[in-house]
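Sequence in, structure out. Go.
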Amino acid sequence: QVQVAESGGGLVQSGGSLRLSCVASGLIVSAYVMSWHRQAPGKERELVAVITPFGGSTNYADSVKGRFTISRDNARNTVSLQMNSLKPEDTAVYYCNAQNKYTYWGQGTQVTVSS
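Output:
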């Protein structure tokens, strides 16, 4: 059974940092397009960061470029999102996604940034 599970969310002050982790079971993260998405209240889910399989190229939403870093640990079969210089507008539920032939979503982890 394939599962992806996020962790690491929480409450942080503006300017602070958080590191989200996505642990996958039943799939190999290096063979999937792995991405982080977020959804704020009343807004649509949006792509935040993506890392491609094998070569590991990365891409980011303009709103997080220079502040967020996506990375992959093949030995631990995890993908992380390091978030620095957080802003109140980064407040959202953050979701991990694994995409290959099929797409898998985690349950999400809440990130709240206070001003």
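Check: The chain has a mean pLDDT of 97. The chain is about 0% helix and 55% strand.
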